[in-house]
Amino acid sequence: MSQRSKLLPGELWNERLFDGVWERSPVNVSPVVEPATGAVLGKISIADPATVAESARAARIAQPAWYALSYDERAATMRKAAALGEQYFEEIVDWVVRESVSSQAKRLSRPV
Question: Which sequence spans correspond to the domains of the chain?
Answer without folding.
Answer: 10-108
